[in-house]
Amino acid sequence: MRLVLEDAAVTDFGLVRPPVLAGAALLRDEPLRQDTGRQKEGWASARVVLVDEEGRSPVRWGPRVEGLGIGAVSGVDDADAGPRLWTRAATEIAGSPPPDALLLGEADGVAYWAVRGGADQVAAGDDGVRWLTLFSVGAELGARDAALLAAAVALLNWHGRALFCARDGSPTRLANAGWARVCEAQHHEEYPRTDPAVICLVHDGADRMLLGRHRAWPAGRFSVLAGFVEAGESLEACVAREIGEEVGLDVTDIRYLGSQAWPFPRSLMLGFHAVADPAQPLRLDEAEISEAVWVTRDEVRQALARGDDWAVADDAPATDSPPPIRLPGRMSIARTMIDSWSAAG
To answer: How far apart are CA 50 and CA 61, in angstroms?
Structure first.
């Protein structure tokens, strides 16, 4: 099915802002990962990001606080208010990089590492620190802090799942400052996994777009459609297949929008938009999608204006009226795509 649009310019649009976890605020220095001498030299001024077993990190609100690693590096994250990632001086943990420390990269000449750590690593009596997940606070962090926390969570997730070699089953050990693991039996090298997934905003080329609700979500929670790329499959082919499988629609004019890291646990979200015909019947994959609706641009704008996103408690009191549409929070590229489409008409 090929749609003929009266105004092709309406079909295309770009992102109104970069997705939250799409920035390049962190210098990923490949030579540094293999230069143990330089790592030890930089350890004296390095900072360490803590992530506990539940994926939470210490975050603090308020002005710059000396000695806590908050605003310790000059740049865009040095505002006087808002959440900041709490980091610890590396020398307070050890005199040199511990074997299990992961080198995240550098920002403004300061090296940042990540380790598993809990509340005992934070200064006693510091009531201003809260332990939060990247998902809950990532949209509020500055670009550097969001990039650091995303890298830390992604790397630690991978190491927790890569303790044994996929080829021979032998135990693996950390290498390259956390960016590889080597098996003990045959010295096979393995690298951090990233699973590509497409996420697509389906629209009619004019003023309607499609929203879907996963069967595990509460009533009223909607988003755009997404799915993992299969082996040997192109991104565009994946978009067409996933939309067809999940809601039974044929899509055309598939166009790329942007990407976002999504370390839950190790995905890369690749954003697209595509055109479908609202007159084509919806056929839902009930194993995944419990509801799909076409909505107008005005309805989307009203939902955005209400602020009824996923941050609203899922246990809100039940009513006889259908719940209002709740859209993804600003942490997700899905929200960036929806905002962008809403602003395009």
So the answer is: 17
